[in-house]
Amino acid sequence: MATDQDIENGSANMLQPFIQKNEKLQTSNQNGSLFMVFLSTFVAIMGSFEFGSSNGFTSPTQQAIMEEFGLSFSQFSVFGSILTIGAMAGAITSGRAADLLGRKGTMRMSSVICTAGWLTIYLAQGPLFLDFGRFLTGYAIGVHSYVVPIFIAEITPTHLRGALLTVHQVFIATGLLVSYIIGALVTWRTLALTGMIPCAIMIIGLNFIPESPRWLAMVGYRNEFHDALQMLRGDNADVSEEEAEIQESLAILQHLPKATVMDLFLNRNLRLVIIGVGLMVFQQFCGYNGIVFYSNQIFTSAGVPPNVGSILYACLQIIVLALGALIIDKAGRRPLLMVSAGGMLLGSLLTGTSFYLKEHDIASDLAPVFTLIGIMIDMGSYCLGLGGIPWIVMSEIFPLHIKGIAGSLVTLASWGGSWVISYSFNFLMAWSSYGAFSLFATFCALAIVFVFKLVPETKGRTLEEIQASMN
C-alpha cells in the first residue's frame, strides 16, 4: 500500500501505468459506435445554447426594456450584470451538486431553474421581478458552465474530446446568434419565452442518455459504471482496458482523504488551481463579455448599425469555433490559446484606435471600419482559443476527488470576472472608450505570457494520463 508521503509526492511507481499506456485503448474506442456519445453531447450542449442565449438577451432588448420600465443606464447595468451574480452562486454550488446528484441530475436541476427564470422575466411587471428572473437564469447557466464540459470530457473518447468540448463553445455562440436574430424580430417578452425551448429539450433528452461512467465509478455503482461505459462505446466495443484504467485511477485516489477547500492549496494541487483560475481570469479580463452585453451600444457609438454588427460577429464566432473544433486535437491547446490572445490583442488595439480617431475627429470616416474590423478580430480570436479552451483544460486537469471543489472555484473565478467586466463596462466606456480597450489589450498580452509559462499541453491523452503527468 502506498504511504501518505508517496501520495503527496505523486509516487512515480503509482503514476507510471497511466503515463505509459499504449494505443490499444484508443483503437478499441474507435472500433465501437459513437452514436450515444454524440447524442449525449447534443443533449448536454443544450445547456451551452442556454448559456449563449442568456448572455445575448440584453443586447437586442436594452432599449425596449429601458423604455417600458423607465430604467437608467445604471439600472440596466444592474439587470445585465445580475446574470453573473446568479452565475457566481451557481458556480459555488455546481461542483458539490455534480458530485452529489450526478452530472445528469445536476443538468436536470439547472434546466428547471432556468425555465423558472425565463418565465419570471416574461411575466415581470417591474424591475424587481425582472432582476429576479435574470438571477435565476444566471444561477442555471453558472451550473451549466461547469457541469456541461465536465460531463462531455468524462464520456468522450480521447481522440474526440477536444473537438466535442469545442462544440460546447460553438453552441454558446449559436445561442448568442439566435438571441440576436430573434431579438431583432420579436418583443423582449417573446424572446424570453424562446429561452425555455433548450431547457425543455435538455430535460426530455436526459431520459435517453447514460450517466457519466467516471461519476458512477466514483460513487461505487460498479454495474451501472460498466453498463454506461459500454453504452457510450457501443455494444461491440471492448471497454475492458478503459474500465481498468478508470478503476486504477480511482483506487489511487481512494487513498486520499475527502477533499476540502484547503486541499486545493497543497503542493500537488496548487499549480492546477493557478492554471485553471488564471485562464478564467484572462478569459474575462480580455473584455469579451463587455462587448457581448453591450454590443449594440458599442456599434452605435462608433457609427455602425447595431443589428448588422451584432449578427455579423455572432456568425463569425460560429465559423471560427467550427474551425477550432476541427483542428484543436491536432494543433493542441497551448498554440491555439496563444494565437487567440494575440488576435484579441490586435482586435482590442484596432477598436481602441477607432474610438480615439472618433473622439479627436481624426479620419472619422475610418472609425466605423476600424471598429467593425477590430470587433470581428477580437470575437473571432476569442472563439478560437480563450473562449472554449479554458473550460476544456479545467475539465481535463483536475483529479476526480477534487474536481467538484476545484471546478466550482474555477467557474466562480470565470463568472466573478464576467460580473466585474459586465458591470464596469459602461463606466469604463464613459471614462475613456479607447482607454477601456487599451486595458483589455494589456490583459491579452499578459495572457500570452501566462500560457507560455504555465499551461500544459493535454491533447491526445486520457484524463487519467493528464492528471498523473501533472503530478
CATH topology: Growth Hormone, Chain: A
- Quickly count the helices: 24
- Shape assignment: globular
Q: What can be said about the biggest beta sheet? A: none
Give the total of beta strands.
Answer: 0
The computed structural class is mainly alpha
Share in β-strands: under 5%
The CATH architecture name reads Up-down Bundle
Describe the structure.
The chain is mainly α and 471 residues long. It is 82% helix and 0% strand. Helix 18 runs antiparallel to helix 19 (333-359) and helix 22 runs antiparallel to helix 23 (433-454). It is globular, with a radius of gyration of 22 Å.
State the main characteristics.
471 residues, mainly alpha, globular, 82% helix, 24 helices, disordered N terminus, Growth Hormone, Chain: A
Task: Map the helices and strands.
Blueprint: H1 4-9, H2 12-19, H3 24-31, H4 35-44, H5 46-56, H6 58-69, H7 73-123, H8 127-155, H9 158-183, H10 188-194, H11 196-205, H12 213-218, H13 222-233, H14 240-253, H15 267-285, H16 288-293, H17 295-302, H18 306-331, H19 333-359, H20 367-384, H21 389-397, H22 400-431, H23 433-454, H24 463-470
In short:
The protein has 471 residues and is mostly helical. The chain has a single domain (28-470), classed as Growth Hormone, Chain: A (Up-down Bundle), CATH 1.20.1250.20. The protein is built from 24 helices and no strands.
